[in-house]
Amino acid sequence: MMVTLLAVALGGAFGTLLRFTVGNWVNAHWPQHFYSATLLVNLVGCLLIGVLYGLFLLRPEVPAAVRAGLIVGVLGGFTTFSSFSLDTLRLLESSQAPLALGYVAVSVLGGLLATWAGLSLTKL
Q1: Contact 26, 63 (CB under 8 A)
Q2: What residue spans of the chain are helical by DSSP H?
């Protein structure tokens, strides 16, 4: 159990730092599109969770600590649905309802599609 906890903690630290780095990079290049960093991270995270899930189905011998470290730790620290909610609220508060609704639709539908695509990649 301690190995799994350590894997999740280290993975979470890595995922969080990666998310922070992506956010800073996107905001430095497109500050007017503050929500783009969250969208990018969520879509990539959904794709990666699909790939990992598919790989783990194909390789049941992968240790539980590795699975938890990657999915709960890295991807849990990397993906940002709480930030997604705040970004949506900020768009609504600034009277940008159509953009907010589009953002929600692309995030949710795009996330589902990316997860499916990631899982499908493991079946090739």
Answers
A1: no
A2: 2-29, 35-58, 64-68, 76-78, 81-93, 97-121
Q: What is the pLDDT of residue 34?
A: 86
From the first residue on, what is the mean pLDDT of each consecutive set of 10 residues in the chain (124 residues)? Answer: 97 97 94 91 94 95 97 93 90 97 96 96 91
So what's the pLDDT on residue 124? 85
Residues in the chain: 124
Q: Give the whole-angstrom CA distance, residue 33 versus residue 49.
A: 25
Which residues have CB under 8 Å from 45's CB, separation 6+?
A: 75, 78, 79, 80
- Determine the pLDDT at residue 80: 80
Distances (CA, A) of 77 to 73, 92, 99, 117: 6, 26, 26, 21
Quote the crossing angle between the two packed helices 97-121 and 35-58, to the nearest 10°.
20
Binding-site entries for Na(+): 76, 79
Residues comprising the binding site?
76, 79
All structural domains of the chain with their residue ranges? 2-121
Q: What is the pLDDT of residue 28?
A: 95
